[in-house]
Write a structure and sequence with these properties.
This protein has 344 residues and is α+β, with helices and mostly antiparallel strands. It is 22% helix and 28% strand. The chain has one domain: 4-Layer Sandwich (L-amino peptidase D-ALA esterase/amidase), CATH 3.60.70. The strands form 4 sheets. Strands 1, 2, 3, 4, 7, 10, 11, 14 and 16 form a 9-stranded mixed sheet that branches. Strands 13-12-15 form a 3-stranded antiparallel sheet. It has a two-stranded antiparallel ribbon with strand order 5-6. Strand 5 and strand 6 form a beta hairpin.
């Protein structure tokens, strides 16, 4: 780590980082819980007024909860929050805490005299970063929900991105720190926001020009190995990391619209294009990549408008992925981009 002294400044990082936040969409609140004992955490995305949601699970090794409820043919139309967490499948317990918080606020689906908050969840694998026995749980989810607000989303080594790493094709010794990022785009009165917890086997690249921002390093850490190029040269075939279920990018996109579950699902599908633009490779057999799409209320959506929203969602999610690695900070064994000596 000592050889990777920062040459860039925080000011330079901020100047090139995408702008905006998922919370620029009215009705969306975000809060984090980050462990003080090891890099892990969870993120609560709350929609107290309800949001019509869809989901698209693209990775081959997902860890999810309540995603079947978001299929267009199901009866429940709205969710009241989304939980993203580290800790692998253990982290799904964080959703219990978000549900408890919302129940206390009387937010949820009315089932007779009961209130049942609908909180889908997805997790990423970060158990190999520090002490893997420390994981997000129901208390963690409650604290994340309690911290939620409409303020700009805190980014970097926080929440579900606290233990996230990227560029793991050649193993932990040559990978880098990922994180959590957010961004938003506007088109007239339309606001589309995105949030991403980036824990990919692939490299993170700048979508506009393919520049590698964070990823697998050369064995001497003097530059980037270029994971996609290495795969074309069959260098990944002998890597023990290529087939391990330790890689996931979780995304949430939202817009100030009133849509159907079918339309939300289509938006989630289109938003995955943003992951493909910013992460190379992505959606591998053991990745758990998941994108949720939330309509927080506003104008109704027709097919033509839905295409615009989906295109903006893909762009915003790609920007959120970039923001995640630009805001990340180094942890032992995993340098962040801001601390690479070869980055000017």
């Amino acid at each position: 780590m000592a050889a990777l002294l920062a040459l860039s400044t925080d000011g330079a990082m901020a100047a090139e980082a995408p702008s905006g936040s998922l919370t620029d969409v009215p009705g969306i609140q975000v809060g984090h819980w980050t462990s003080s004992r090891r890099p892990t955490g969870c993120t609560a995305i709350l929609t107290p007024g309800g949001a019509t949601a869809g989901v698209d699970v693209r990775g081959g090794g997902p860890g999810t909860r309540e995603t079947d409820l978001l299929r267009p043919e199901t009866s429940i139309q709205q969710v009241h929050g989304v939980c993203l967490a580290g800790g692998s499948a253990y982290g799904l317990a964080a959703a219990d805490g978000i549900m408890r918080f919302l129940e206390e606020k009387h937010v949820g689906f009315k089932a007779g005299r009961w209130i049942v908050p609908i909180v889908p969840a997805a997790i990423l694998f970060d158990l190999n970063v520090g002490d893997g026995t420390i994981r997000p749980d129901a208390k963690s989810g409650y604290r994340a929900a309690k911290a939620a607000s409409g303020d700009a989303v805190e980014q970097g080594n926080v929440g579900a991105g606290a233990g996230a790493t990227v560029g793991k094709l050649f193993g932990a010794g040559r990978s880098m720190k990922g994180g959590l990022g957010s961004a938003s785009l506007r088109a007239g009165e339309l606001v589309v926001g995105a949030l991403a917890a980036v824990n990919s086997i692939g490299d993170v690249v700048r979508p506009s020009n393919g520049e590698i921002l964070a990823g697998a390093l050369l064995s001497d850490r003097s530059g980037f190995a270029d994971s996609a190029a290495a795969m074309r040269r069959s260098e990944a075939a002998s890597s023990s990391s290529a087939g391990r279920n330790e890689n996931t990018t979780l995304g949430v996109v939202a817009a100030n619209v009133d849509w159907t579950q079918a339309q939300a699902t289509k938006c989630a599908q289109m938003a995955h294009d943003g992951l493909a633009r910013a992460i190379r490779p992505v959606h591998l057999p053991f990745d758990g990549d998941v994108v949720f799409a939330l309509g927080a209320g506003g104008q109704a959506v027709d097919s033509r408008r839905l295409g615009v929203i989906g295109a903006l969602a893909a762009d915003a999610l790609a920007l959120a992925v970039v923001a995640a690695v630009l805001h990340a900070s180094s942890i032992p064994g995993y340098p962040a981009r801001r601390d690479l000596s070869f980055v000017q």
